[in-house]
């Protein structure tokens, strides 16, 4: 069903990420030219690469660190996400318990420490990114989801999380939607952040510490010589060639076509889409009673996440997760009318009080999905290159932890982080095409069907569950 006002509400939405469409966006830095040398080359200027560069410089100010990005720092997932900065390193506690039962307590502790360290860095460098520890409210919108919330709360309490279950009236007193049947509030393990400003602030901090940053510079290939790695680059409007010879390399290219062939088996780029409303008027805000600025997410298999921005807009994203055959990533895939219409319809079902609200922006971005839904790590070229990927839509916080792991791996150290199962073990690979696309699309279809059938998982999902490949948000 298309609500009559859905088309009107979307009519003027700018097809760009709201977060990146603001005057404070920094001017691009010049592309790399000629041959260069560095102790550490970081490829990719999203959170992963920026944290790696920053932490490397903090650990050793004399280390010569050079970072390149094919676009500008933060233009990709890092500057266009929902801004839920979570402590979890394992895409939720339940996924962590399933996959790393022996060390999930330690991962939980490290995740909490990581979130605190992000807060400290934001304060220390004066990063103006509206970092607010307002927590996350998970809501049940179908009766069967109430049992799931109760189970999640019990598990969370076992690990010492201070969560609170809310009944129908309590949850609607927090945020008033006629769809809400109950909720679980996690007060202190999720912060809300302005994602692009976090990326831009990390870039500024890197520059202040002396990291050399070149934007609009693509690494086109890597090869080893006797003592170092050589990265070939193409930069600027003319694709001018350049090169960097570096002792160590961090590969932080997320869901983009990887420079290491072996990574292709482990990653699929999945498009996630988002709508942003115009700023709500005080009367509209009163109508939904959303006063506490916490992040929200519903708890279906196909779920929505939403939050309020500093200037009082609602960001509403998620639900569809779209895979394009052959791991395709392309700018034209960021706009998807059918998904925006679905999201708008769900928005108005969630908040019928906001029937006259319009959307100012609509966009999509690519998520680095792996079969275990949380990051994996590795090295190549005899330990001179380290990579991290597979954050599967929960990388705003976890990428800082991932960057610490990368630096430990490059130091060749046997450290508490490199000894983790999470770091040593790889996820199962995806099959090659066409089985890959068939499997992913069948999974999507089955998840939608489970949501429509009170959570009942079909034979395909139960088989994936048995193989340790199932996902239950
Ligand atoms: C719509 C959307 C919503 C999301 N919401 C959330 C959320 O609320 N909470 C959460 O925790 N996570 C969320 N995520 C996921 C989160 O944004 C990512 O996990 C995180 O930003 C990954 O950071 P990254 O640095 O690894 O990747 P990216 O930010 O994608 O950075 C990778 C960089 O590598 C560069 N690059 C690629 N190839 C090359 C090359 N050959 N040469 C040079 N540079 C190259 C790219 O230009 C890019 O800038 C969301 C993602 C999307 C798309």
From TrEMBL:
Organism field: Micromonospora parastrephiae
PANTHER family referenced in this protein's UniProt entry, alphabetically: FAD DEPENDENT OXIDOREDUCTASE DOMAIN-CONTAINING PROTEIN, SARCOSINE DEHYDROGENASE-RELATED
Start and end residues of each FAD dependent oxidoreductase domain: 39-408
InterPro entries associated with the record: FAD-dep_OxRdtase, FAD/NAD-bd_sf
TM spans (from-to): none
Name by which UniProt lists this protein: FAD-dependent oxidoreductase
SUPFAM superfamilies named in the record: FAD/NAD(P)-binding domain (SSF51905)
Gene3D superfamilies, A to Z: D-Amino Acid Oxidase, subunit A, domain 2 (3.30.9.10), FAD/NAD(P)-binding domain (3.50.50.60)
């Amino acid at each position: 069903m298309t609500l009559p006002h859905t088309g009107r509400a979307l009519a003027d939405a700018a097809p760009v990420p709201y977060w990146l469409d603001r005057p404070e966006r920094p001017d691009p830095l010049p592309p790399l030219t000629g041959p260069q040398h560095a102790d550490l080359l970081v490829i990719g200027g999203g959170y992963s690469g920026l944290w790696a560069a920053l932490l490397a410089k903090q650990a050793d100010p004399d280390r010569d660190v050079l970072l390149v990005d094919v676009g500008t720092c933060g233009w990709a997932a890092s500057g266009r996400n929902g801004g839920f900065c979570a402590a979890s390193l394992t895409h939720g506690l339940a996924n962590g318990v399933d996959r790393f039962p022996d060390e999930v307590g330690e991962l939980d502790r490290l995740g909490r420490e990581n979130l605190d360290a992000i807060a400290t860095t934001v304060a220390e460098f004066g990063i103006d990114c509206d970092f607010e520890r307002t927590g996350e409210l998970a809501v049940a919108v179908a009766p069967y989801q109430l049992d799931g919330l109760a189970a999640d709360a019990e598990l969370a309490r076992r690990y010492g999380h201070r969560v609170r279950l809310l009944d129908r009236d309590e949850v609607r007193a927090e945020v008033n939607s006629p769809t809400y049947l109950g909720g679980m509030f996690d007060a202190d393990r999720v912060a809300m952040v302005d994602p692009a400003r976090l990326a831009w602030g990390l870039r500024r901090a890197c520059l202040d510490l002396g990291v050399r940053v070149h934007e609009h510079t693509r690494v086109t290939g890597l090869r080893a010589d006797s003592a170092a790695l050589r990265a070939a680059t193409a930069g600027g409007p003319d694709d001018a060639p350049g090169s960097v010879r570096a002792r160590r390399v961090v590969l932080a290219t997320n869901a983009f076509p990887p420079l290491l062939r072996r990574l292709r088996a482990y990653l699929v780029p999945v498009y996630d889409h988002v709508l942003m409303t115009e700023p709500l008027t005080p009367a509209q805000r009163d109508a939904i009673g959303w006063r506490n600025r916490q992040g929200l997410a519903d708890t279906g298999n196909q779920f929505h996440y939403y939050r309020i921005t500093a200037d009082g807009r609602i960001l509403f994203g998620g639900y569809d997760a779209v895979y394009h055959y052959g791991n395709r990533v392309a700018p034209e895939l960021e706009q998807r009318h059918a998904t925006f219409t679905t999201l708008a319809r769900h928005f108005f079902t969630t908040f019928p009080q906001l029937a006259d609200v319009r959307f100012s922006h609509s966009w999509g971005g690519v998520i680095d999905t792996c079969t275990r839904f949380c990051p994996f790590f590795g090295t190549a070229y005899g330990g001179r290159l380290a990579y991290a990927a597979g954050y599967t839509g929960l990388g705003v916080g976890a990428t800082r932890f991932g960057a610490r792991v990368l630096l430990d791996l490059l130091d060749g150290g046997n450290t508490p982080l490199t000894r983790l199962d999470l770091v040593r073990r790889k996820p199962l690979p995806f099959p090659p095409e066409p089985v890959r696309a068939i499997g992913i699309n069948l999974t999507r279809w089955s998840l939608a069907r489970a949501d429509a059938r009170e959570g009942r998982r079909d034979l395909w999902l139960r088989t994936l569950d048995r193989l340790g490949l199932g996902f239950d948000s």
